Amino acid sequence: MRISRSARIVLGAIASLIMTLVYTPLAIVLINSFNKSMNMDWPPPGFTLDWWQKAFGSNGLMAALGTSVLVALCASLVALVLGTLLAIALSRYKFFGRQAVGLMVILPIALPGIVTGLALNNAFRTVLGLQLSMATVIIAHATFCIVTVYNNVLARLSRTNRNLEDASADLGAGVFTTFRLVTLPQIGSALIAGGLLAFALSFDEIIVTTFTAGSGVETLPIWIMNNMFRPGKAPVVDVVAVTTVLISVVPLYFAQRLTRDETK
Amino acid sequence: MKLNKAKALAAAIAISLALAGCSSGSTSTGATMLDKLGKTEGTLTLLGWPGYAEDGSNDPNVDWVTPFETATGCQVTFKSYGTSDEALSLFKTGEYDAIAASGDATLRLIAGGNVQPLNTALIPSYAGVYSFLKNRDWNTVDGKTYGVPHGYGANLLMYNTSVVKPAPTSWDVVFDGASAYKGKVTAYDSPIYIADAALYLMKHKPELGITDPYSLDTTQLAAAVDLLKAQRANVGEYWSDYLKSIQSFTTGNTVVGTTWQVIKNSMPANSKVEAILPSEGATGWSDSWMVASNAKHVNCAYKWLDYIDSPKANAQATEYFGEAPVTQDACQYASADFCTTYHAGDEAYAAQIYYWTTPISTCLDGRTDVKCTDYAAWTKAWQEIKG
Amino acid sequence: MPRSATAGVTQVTSARRASTYLYQHAKTRLRLLIAAPVVWLGLVYIASLLMLLVTALWTVDEYTGETKVAWNLDNIVSLFTDSLYSVVGLRTIGIALAVTIIDVLLALPVAFFMSKVATPRLRNILAISVLLPLWASYLVKAYAWRSVLSNKGILQWVLEPLGLNSPGYSLLGASLTLGYMWLPYVILPIYAGLEKVPSNLLEASSDLGASTFTTIRRVVLPIVLPSIIAGSIFAFSLTLGDYITINIVGGASQMLGNLIYTNVGTANNLPMASALALIPIAIMFVYLSAVKRTGALDSL
Question: Which regions in chain B score pLDDT beneath 50?
Fold first, then answer.
């Protein structure tokens, strides 16, 4: 389709307007992190670096950050393994119940977080009598992260050539070797994209986490929630948000580079 | 294949039912009171509002937990909750030794057997606590004290002085007279706020016979609900965390409504707001530290209760949170005007406060001819009021 | 030169034996692949869901407040008889629909621009820019919107010269905020879907004389529809269960999620909360079965 020049310009204008709108609240967050007022008054009465100092001096914050990273890593790893297994199974084989399994993967993310959180909380505490802990959060997060990996790998597998795997077998490679040397490299970037999205999902998740985290487990979103209730501490959370956004640019950039290279 | 699947599903459901049926919420009956203090256990798990037990991890300058840990050897783990109801569900897991519970939760904890009666002789600081905080409905049942106070505060009426004229002296500005400020009225977002309506009716509609805003039979509750539904039409937003309230008053989205002293104090310096205790009196709250029935570290728990009511620690804790201390001796450890701002120890002021108490079906005002509405009924009513 | 007798013969290790067996038995391969994920999902998720739904048929003991296994349909019946639930339920569905529509309308131009108009370099930048907001905490973004919507916020500042007012803390305010939160989740699948539209198809359409608009309407849209729906599933479902944003920017209103949350926490009435949870589950099942035919589920 030849898109006329005027159409391109209009489209570009609309897209940039929308992106500007998307970043305006984030700009407010950035400005508020320097806001002298502890209630985040707007417009800011003055500017200060206090909140930045407080953020980096807060052990509670660092611990929460570490917890979130750990939970997200573990959940993503589990999701990577389970999602890949499932994607391979559903793309390469036809079997009865295929549709049902496909639906089952989507459910944790298609159903509202409060339902998932409530169900898991009820199962862990009331039925199984377990104490809530970091493990229960990881299990919960992994469950709804499976679908992001599954979808990415499934899409990639449907585009790869099965013949390569057959050729590999013809050349004498065993099942595991074929997977390791042929399949894995092909789905590599899908794994990265899926894993990164799973990490992001887990990192910022609050509703399911509220229901499944044990008393000692404070992930970053929970820390933020607690801190907004603490007297005069609110703007520190703005510092946290700005920092996480800035830090995430790096992995996002690399992931983008890798996925771009693959499709070229 | 299909049959196998159906069987598998049936099996899954059957197992789920069996497991679910096996579940039980364990409640033990209230344990017996501690006779004497033993050796401290070395650890202590606490549950409370954010800011009730600061150990310097959020702000190195705010720390009254570390001195406690050094003095008693009890290492403290603190978990905060956002609402009284969250507190209850957390505490019922049995993972905590002591809890700072608000009055809308205490009686539920006591009734559920989750907390043990306290031997106040083992808590030396208790002697210095204000008398009007002792042996009250929300912390004492059948003559047994279950909790010692952390602090106390009133739900004041705050208003924007440039918008709300003339300066109000009564709660009618948020009830009968609220339509003048349609869309800019605020109220506390919790079923316990029904008591505020009941208090208003107590003074303005004596024919309803309300003597205790927490003891409402079905007719009285219905009257309070009607009043609140009428108020709902004028409410801009309800608040439960005070950051929301501060912001709303600052931007002018809210001009009149319930508030806490700490909110008034946190308003920007140039704000035109005032907070008063209206003529009808007000509801208020005094959080109590209670010890779990099967507390694993009961000696450390008792030590904590003693510590938090001791003058210096209490001054630190209450000044940080923004509520009145529980003992007059705390005033010397706080900043100069702290006690005056919070009316600490002012008995006449305190007498006008109707502290949060959990509504239960046995009428707290002593009536035996009717059943009063309990917290579950209030919760349902509150959902209907918000609509 | 004589060759070694073993040259060219692979060693028969146990791994090799396992590999051979697996190669020959497809069913076993399948079963092994599927075992872990299905057991996980089935045990962790489906079973938990079923247990929750079963709780909806129970009740709460009046005096102790504990869940009692007393089978009854009261809770479920009250979903239909108590007007509170239908009012809040319909309001929630309405907001979810509004949010979904807002998001799709905003996502389409951005995704289209990214996929078909932007240069590769710009496309990379945009792809990253779309995902970045996901890393700023949900709560922080909600409070930022609180500032945007307030009486003295940016929206008021922009709209006042036009004689309008900011929507303030209202259902509209909440819809805008929720739409903002989920936008990246809607842009992504649509962008992925657009990438799959082969350019030669578009050129063929042009060659056959179709205008840009017609091409979009009759070639692009049908191909991209599953992705649009996939994105909408996110926006719809995430809004259906939300109880935090409505609290922060929704004024005095409440949504289904709030009712469920209060029943779990404040009322300590798990059976009623489970019964209420049936509503979003039922809605999503209807939604999912309706869109299954379009193939949207494969584009999530």
Answer: 1-6, 8, 12, 16-29
